[in-house]
Amino acid sequence: MKFRCRMVNGVAMRDFTNVANTISRLARTCVMKLTTHEVCFHVGDDRSPIAWTVLSQKQFFSEYTMIGVSDEHNEIYLEFSPSMLAKCLSSLKMAAKSVKIKLTNKEQPCLTIEIDQVPSFSSESRQCVHDVPVTVIPRKEWSEFQAPVVPSFDISIDMPELKHLRNVVDQMGKMSPTLIITASRSGKFILKVETSFATVATHFQDLRVQGESQNQDEEEKVTATVDIKKFAMFLTWDVIKADSVTCNIVADRLINMYMNIENHMEIHYFIPAVASA
Questions:
Q1: For the chain, how many structural domains are there in total?
Q2: pLDDT tens digit string along 45-83?
Q3: Domain span including residue 174
Q4: For the chain, how long is the longest CA-to-CA vector?
Q5: Among 102, 137, 177, 236, which residue has the least CB neighbours within 10 Å?
Q6: Entry pTM
Q7: What share of the chain is helix, strand, coil (3-state, %, to 5)?
Q8: Cα 225-228-233 angle, rounded to 5 deg
Q9: Closest to 190 (Cα-Cα) out of 127, 124, 268, 247
Q10: CA–CA separation, 93 vs 113, rounded Å?
């Protein structure tokens, strides 16, 4: 097995760091799937996926070499602490010329991260080296870390800007542990919390509903109630400047948020529905 990549583009380094930071808030461990054409991050398990992020190697990396376990199974799966990766990448907040990531063996398998920096007080670059211990996942377990199966949704609607939703949800989270999300085929998107003393709702209108046919009832509404903390956690992805964010709802079962960033990154985020209060 062999893996080595290099980033020199400032936007790519920023987005890679933001992905690591956001994933570090979701779970203690994650799995990185490496193929010849993409890098994927899997959070959750096969029964309950939380997030699935796909980065295009052509768009992110100026250099990219990956040799898998065999010609037939040309992939690598690594489990590691995303918080440790995020901490190592924090050096990229300073002026960085490039970052190299490679799979090494230093008493145990590691992702070795080499960051070339140019300090503001000097014209000479310096190198910071970090090691993130990883566990190489055997091939017999690969099936547990594939792209999650995305079900057929009852409605798919474009979401308002995430930064606006964050302010709303932060206030609603002080009132209720659950959030009622409703979308209509007329393009309405409603966030609502209910308590014993009040019902508070925020309405967004004129949003694009995808895949609609003319004979469907525009007033039909699809609703799911979710854990408000899990929804708020998704909104931290607003650091990624997405071209579009879609909310896909299976009534009373599941909400899936899908983000697409200039066709070089995709993010799926899953929140199971909970029983209404």
A1: 2
A2: 666 889 999 999 999 999 999 999 888 899 999 999 999
A3: 155-272
A4: 67
A5: 177
A6: 0.91
A7: 20, 45, 35
A8: 125
A9: 247
A10: 15
CB atoms within 10 A of CB 162: 20
Determine the distance from the C-alpha atom of residue 104 to the mean position of all C-alpha atoms in its chain, rounded to a whole number. Answer: 26
Q: How many CB atoms lie within 10 A of CB 119?
A: 11
Token pair of 98 as six digits: 């490039």
| Per-residue pLDDT at 215 | 53
Alpha-carbon distance of 137 to 127, in angstroms, equals 30
Cα gap 233→252, rounded to integer Å: 20
Q: Which two tokens stand for residue 123?
A: 């014209």
Asked if 116 and 217 sit in the same domain, the reply is no
Q: At what angle do helices 10-24 and 82-89 cross, to 10 degrees?
A: 140
268 close to 258: Cβ distance less than 8 angstroms: yes
Residue 173 and residue 58 share a domain? no
Q: From CA 39, how far away is CA 48, in angstroms rounded?
A: 21
CB count within 10 Å of CB 36 equals 12
> What three-state secondary structure class fits 266?
strand
